[in-house]
Amino acid sequence: MPNKYPLWKNLMILLAITLGFIYAAPNLYPPDPAIQLSGQSGAMVIDEDVLRQVERSLDEANIEHFEGVADGEAILIRLRDKEQQLSAKEVIQQSLGGAYIVALNLAPTTPDWLRSFGASPMKLGLDLSGGVHFLLEVDLDAALATRLESELEDAKVALREARVRYRSLEIVGPELVGQFRNEEERAAAEKAIRAQSQALTTVTNPSQNPLTLVLVVNDITLKDLQENALKQNLTSLRNRVNELGVSEPLVSRQGKNRIVVELPGVQDTAEAKRIIGKTANLEFRLESDSALGERFKFRDGTTSAVLQNTPIITGENVTDARSSFDENSRPQVNITLDAGGGWQMGHATRDNIGKRLGVLFIEYKTRLEKGLDEEGEPVMVPVPFVEKNIISLATVQAQLGKSFRITGLDSQRESSELALLLRAGALAAPMYIVEERTIGPSLGAENIQLGVRSVTIGMGMVLLFMLVVYRVFGIYANIALSLNLVILVAFMSLLGATLTLPGIAGIVLTVGMAVDANVLIFSRIREELNAGLKPQAAISAGYDRAFVSIIDANLTTLIVAMILYLIGSGPVQGFAVTLSLGIITSMFTSIVVTRAMVNVIYGGRKIDRLSI
Amino acid sequence: MKELKIYNFMGPSRAMMVVSAVLLLLSSVSLSTRGIHLGLDFSGGTQIEVGYQQPAAVETVRAQLVDAGFDGPTVVHFGAETEVLLRLKEIPVVDQAAVQSEEQQPDIGQRVVAALSAGGEQIELRRVDYVGPQIGEELREEGGLGMLVALAVVMLYVAVRFQFKFALGAVLALAHDVILTLGFFSVTQMEFDLTVLAAILAVIGYSLNDTIIVFDRVRENFRKLRKTQAVDVINESLSQTLWRTLNTSVTTLLVLLALYIFGGELIHNFAAALLFGVLVGTYSSIYVAANLLLLLKVSREDLLQPVEGELVDDLP
Asked: CB of A213 within 8 A of CB of A190?
């Protein structure tokens, strides 16, 4: 039978379209403005009591709210009016004080039945939602310099222990350069240093002085060092960004040495930068036997311990910390100190075997407190404070040196978290802001409006054009085009793609280009009709012959879109994503869906003429 | 039965070649003498957009900034009289010392707003962009590289799917479009930012689309028609695809026009680049790509062999 799809094929197409509608639907429900509240530390319980307090303060300020939910860790409370969001935040912050992080948020209003399908709306990019974007560059050269310095210290110790004399040993650029009196001493020095550190390799240069020893950090160590510097910075950034009270912050790596931080809804870049620019630190202190000393809480807030007043070493002496397993496959953390730190640690632990050694994690934080401004009006002022928590308290089993380990950890999760904290507290490589973009909230809202308007108008004109040019077949193309838009939005929501302004431009462009396949097919059908084919045969020949051209043309465009994705960043990638997805969905709707419609209407019966 | 009207597209091929050559020359001259007005993405620097309640005078704004100690600011209207775009030399670096001393340091955005609202105006800080010099330089390199890679991959694809002469025709047509669009930005001195680069790559995609459709027809007709003259085959193919070419161009231009007029200032240049590129791309798929096929003396034999070769290659 000509021009008939089997039933299963029609059903599959219907299913695909239905799914498209379901997953696109959440975007129709505008989110409620909301306030999110969480604790400064994870140990705080945010329950119904806190919620009642929040609700009371909102009532007092005449701010309409509804559906407040407390889940023990955070509260999400919805507001009626977006205009009141900022004042609601202030009101709550004032009534609850600095121990809580209050953030603006948007609460989805997706109905339950849609949510049961796992459907959720598209995420909005910063250019549509407003907020701050930072691109930070981690100074890997500085990380290398720090490493070289500790290698230099270690090398000097190694030479002293091996009783090798040297004229000089110093850092020159990225190299460690030693001068010796004779070749024997040089050889002995090389042996001693290399035996002590696996991180260094000798550079041999035929033209160099035979009494000079040049060492560089080898490639594996260098790569490792860079990876760690980046990971360390990422970890500490994530910790710090959480403090800012942003509902959905993004901290992610970009390329070899960069980190992207996106803070939707944040406008005060000065505050954001101050918090981002801060570093954490570590202190190793012995437990105090007497009441003399300072009492610190554990990081999880459960218990506390008294530690001596003076630290043995600080984070600056820690070069590395890694989680691994001991000989009995129990989790442990291996810590490496630099030479100076190793010496200090050995000295301090020699007479204290059996005592406990604590590690303090020090964070520089900010909390908002009530204060008065110049006119005596109450305002929330940021007050910096230092938070010190114990992250480890372990018994010293033997005299500790340059490298030692902490055992007795309960799980691998605990050991990797401890290693992470130790590294985050150790001196990380410095970071610099290389790109910063702040988009005001009104500009974001305006961008959405402009985007929606241009999609609507552009699409309207295309629909009209197709109707005029291809009449009845134009209707099929138009239905396909509208479905294309629905399926494209569904795909983007399902993939969790972020919608940006260039992304909207990509959708607009897709709308214009998506009809191309139908134009090709319909032109071909017209041609075949003109060439004398009967309508049924013309339909079939038109679809078949146009197919190759459509695939060729779309594949090449897809290739270009992928290149665009690879070289672009942020918003441009958004454009590339919508363009590629649009090409794929448009092939489905303009070839398969229109064919199914045409088949259902014309298939299997005698037709004299087509309205095309 | 209607007979398709065959237009003699290749009749004025010489004249069109001269037109293309002149346009290419003009673009190159403008690019080398006037250059391109690079946007913040590529040049690096600080750019701030502020919104006023009433129309703002550019001169007054500039004077206010200079008084507040900003060095050589550039001030222009952005889309509307009430929107002002400022380019500044200052960079909003994090001051390590200030971080350590825990001192609240006013941000550049706040400083600008403070300076401009000194006279009591209501000013809204709409956006602040800072792009470091190294980022701009990298983007310039990556952008150029991206275009070259796109052209190379396209050439490879067309060479495999069609034949080398077709690939050369397609790529030269694309290069033609890219150079003319760049030339358009050089002549008008419109700002060339990251979205414009994206638009140019989209132009490559669009123009290629057009060219491939024409080539597809040329290939089909070479196989089907017994005509020996390449000119006749190309003329017939172009005539057959003419309506499709025009209709698709019209729908694309319609949406781009909507984007250009209603899309807002931020994607104005993006839409302009695409509008110009789509026009040039439509022209080039007829008068550059097809013309080059003629010049390269494309023939039936060119298309018959590679298809057999392809089949052989596919064997394990």
From this structure: yes
